[in-house]
Structure formats: structure tokens, C-alpha cells
Write a structure and sequence with these properties.
By secondary structure, the chain is an alpha+beta fold. The chain contains six helices and seven strands. It folds into three domains: 1-37, no CATH class; 39-165, Pnp Oxidase, Chain A; 175-204. Strand 3 and strand 4 (86-92) form a beta hairpin.
Amino acid sequence: MGDQAYSSDVAFTPSVKAVQTRRGSRRAYSRVEEDGSWQTRITPDLAAFIEAQISVFLATANLGGQPYIQHRGGPPGFLKVLDDKTIGFADFAGNRQYITLGNLADNSKAYLFLIDYMQRRRIKIWGEARVVEGDAELVAKLMPNDYKARPEQVILFTVSAWDSNCAQHIPQRFDAGDVAAALAKRDERIHALEAEIEKLRAAATATPSD
């Protein structure tokens, strides 16, 4: 952690702590620090959460400190946990602005923000990222099966610290595929019930045989 006393110091700078003191939350966060602060390695639970996501926001900053946030998406598993400190993903071709790549060439500090709207859970991950070009074997390892996208390079993210937020203020939303599957299952059940009702009606109105 370098000159950081706690892993959370990656975010809680002296200026942040001063604001926390002024606003009355420093004591609570001091207790978090005393209890070991934020985790610095990817736990099995976090790994499962990461690899279930279909969306991630990657934040970088240039040498002047100007931040930039880029969205990346793909099927579940497009984010892969390579070990307890490393997350990797194939970086697909996009609008060719290459702002993230340029930022990382000058400043390796990076941040991942993952949010699951259905479960109302969000994870914040601080660390460093690097771009790997020309490694066909690594691309093949990280490229999702049968996904229609063209990988240009790989981004490897090394975790420094991570934290989770409470569900407060997260709107509950559902993935379109999950909603479609639920509706299809409901419609199938409705059709089965309608068929059963028709059979019962036919039996009730049938003329008894002599």
C-alpha cells in the first residue's frame, strides 16, 4: 500500500478524512480501519458477482487529472477473475476514440464500478490497469464463446482495494432477457390453464349418453 496506512486510504485521502470529520462520519470509518479496513483480494463471493455481470464502468484519468468513464458490456463471464488480485477482459472494438488506452499509457490508476440493479448491489474496486496488445492466447482465453464482437486488445486490472455499498437509492431494474423468459413462462402457464378450462366446459355441457 506504499505510504498508505489502510487500504481504504486509496479513497480516503487527508482531505476526504477532513470532510468526514467535519460532517461527523470519521469515527465510523475509523472503526472500519481498526477492523482491517477494505479487503484487498478478490473473495469467492466477489468473484462470483464479477463474473455474473453483463456491464461494467471503467474509470481512468489523464496526466492532467481529467477523469473519463467508459462502459464495457458483454455476456455473463466477459469479466474474468484470473486470480485473487486480477480481473481481465477482452476489449472489443468501439468508436475508436481510445481515450481509456491513452489515459492508461500515462496513468495506470483505474477504478471499476459494478452495479446489479436486480439485486440492488454495487461494488467499487480501486486498482491499476494495463493494456495488453498482440497476445492471441490471452485474447482467446478471455473472449466469450460465440459472442459477436471483435477484440482489439486485453485490459488487465489489478485490485488494490474494494468496497460494497448498501442498496439505498438503487432503483430495482430487470434484464430484458430475464423479463422475456418470465413472461414466456407465464404465457405458457396461461395457455395450459385455458386449455384445461375448455376441457372442463366441454365436459360440463356434454349431453349424457343413454
